[in-house]
């Protein structure tokens, strides 16, 4: 260094010397702290001083991690919830399907029992859909002329008469329900064998028993079954239950309403059976042969 260099530019010990001094000092401090714990008090004070700095340094990172964990858990929970909902819907659909099959099997067993009680030809038909005309009460079934279904056959479920086949196609048939407007069925009251006629009033409306005097022996709860007098419906088939009887003073007829026993809307299958068997011709009167004999004489 030049002799005229200012004093404050003068360098101290050489770098190597300073390194050795500071190294020895550090080593001495480490040994003394390890043996005598001289720095514990200072370390505690420093920890108190630098804690706010540590908190400021670590808090944003911790909060960011917490927010990330929160959204990740939310995503996982949403996915899990969606999966559980899908499984629940699948299980519910399976349970509904099982319940529907059980109900269908029960109906088929009931129809089988009902068929066994009818000594006529019968055939199982499946309901496809309601008739297209909203002002009529009709059903379309999945059997037609190819399956030997014929117009005039009676259609029943395991509870009672549903209607009559009125139109037949090769693969389907049309059934007119007993609730169709002005469709009439000759019936009798099972309790007292009183014969009458029940009329349809339209889809989703009750049946009506018409032209009966106010003092007629019919009451709510009476069961109406086919009488067989028309030669169409076999006798003894349940048709309806009386639900309302109105007897008004001064009226020529009672107002009597009945509810069909057949509930086809709750089932998928019906039973098509032949109508009433053909009746034997009336025997000739005894006067006919006598008149013939007189002519011979």
TrEMBL record:
Residues 128-271 form the Rod shape-determining protein MreC beta-barrel core domain. Residues 84-118 form a coiled coil. It comes from Chitinilyticum piscinae. One of its GO terms (biological process) is regulation of cell shape. Involved in formation and maintenance of cell shape. Pfam families: MreC (PF04085). The keyword Ligase does not apply. Keywords: Cell shape, Coiled coil. Gene3D superfamilies: Rod shape-determining protein MreC, domain 1, Rod shape-determining protein MreC, domain 2. GO terms for cellular component: plasma membrane. This is Cell shape-determining protein MreC. InterPro entries: Cell/Rod_1, Cell/Rod_MreC_2, MreC, MreC_beta-barrel_core. Belongs to the MreC family. The keyword Coiled coil applies.
């Amino acid at each position: 260094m030049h002799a005229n260099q200012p004093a404050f530019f003068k360098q101290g010990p050489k770098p190597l010397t300073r390194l050795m001094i500071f190294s020895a000092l550090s080593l001495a401090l480490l040994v003394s702290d390890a043996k005598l714990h001289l720095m514990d008090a200072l370390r505690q004070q420093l920890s108190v001083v630098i804690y706010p700095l540590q908190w400021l340094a670590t808090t944003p990172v911790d909060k960011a991690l917490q927010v990330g964990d929160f959204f990740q858990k939310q995503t996982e929970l949403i996915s899990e919830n969606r999966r559980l909902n899908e499984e629940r819907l699948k299980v519910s659909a399976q349970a509904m399907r099982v319940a529907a099959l059980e109900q269908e099997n029960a109906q088929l067993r009931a129809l089988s029992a009902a068929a066994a009680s009818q000594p006529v030809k019968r055939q199982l038909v499946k309901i496809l859909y309601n008739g297209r005309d909203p002002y009529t009460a009709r059903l379309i079934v999945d059997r037609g002329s190819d399956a030997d279904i014929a117009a005039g056959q009676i259609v029943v479920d395991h509870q009672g008469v549903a209607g009559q086949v009125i139109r037949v196609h090769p693969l389907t048939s049309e059934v007119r329900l007993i609730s169709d407007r002005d469709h009439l069925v000759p019936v009798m009251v099972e309790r007292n064998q009183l014969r009458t006629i029940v009329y349809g009033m339209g889809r989703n409306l009750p049946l009506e028993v018409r032209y009966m005097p106010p003092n007629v022996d019919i009451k709510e709860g009476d069961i109406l079954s086919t009488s067989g007098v028309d030669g169409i419906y076999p006798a003894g088939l349940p048709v309806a239950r009386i639900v309302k009887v109105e007897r008004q003073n001064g009226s020529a007829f009672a107002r009597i309403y009945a509810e069909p026993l057949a509930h086809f809307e709750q089932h998928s299958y019906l039973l098509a059976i032949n109508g009433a068997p053909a009746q034997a011709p009336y025997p000739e009167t005894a006067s006919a042969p006598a008149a013939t004999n007189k002519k011979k004489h």
